[in-house]
Amino acid sequence: MVDKKVGYMDMKGDIIIKPKYDSGSIFVDGIAPVRKGNKCCYIDKKGNMVIDADYDWDQRAIDMFVSYYTTFK
Q1: Which of 7, 24, 34, 63 lies 20 to 30 A from 69 at CA?
Q2: Do 29 and 53 touch, CB atoms closer than 8 A?
Q3: Roughly how many angstroms between the first and final C-alpha of the chain, as a whole number?
Q4: Are residues 40 and 56 in contact, defined by beta-carbon separation less than 8 angstroms?
């Protein structure tokens, strides 16, 4: 986090995706949910939006997404 914004770094600590999101989660199968305002979108590992921010952010749904895909895949 930088100035209350979330970004992503690699294993070396180099910033890969600049901090610009209000919240975020881990990458699963190459995409990660991030929050912009009260909306949820998904980005790839380069920071490109792959699913538009058309959906309300629901932390429970994000937790279920991460739990399911990290447990059963």
Answers
A1: 7
A2: no
A3: 29
A4: yes
CA angle 24, 57, 28 (to 5 degrees): 45
Instruction: Write out the DSSP string of 10-73.
Output: -TTS-EEEEEEESEE---BTTEEEEEETTEEEEEETTS-EEEEEEEE--HHHHHHHHHHHHH--
Q: Is 59 left (phi over 0), alpha (psi -120 to 50) or beta?
A: alpha
- Tell me which residue of 36, 16, 37, 38 sits closest to 27, measured CA to CA: 16
Residue type, 52: D
In angstroms, how far is CA 24 from the centroid of its own chain?
4
Q: How far apart are CA 58 and CA 67, in angstroms?
A: 14
pTM summary value: 0.81
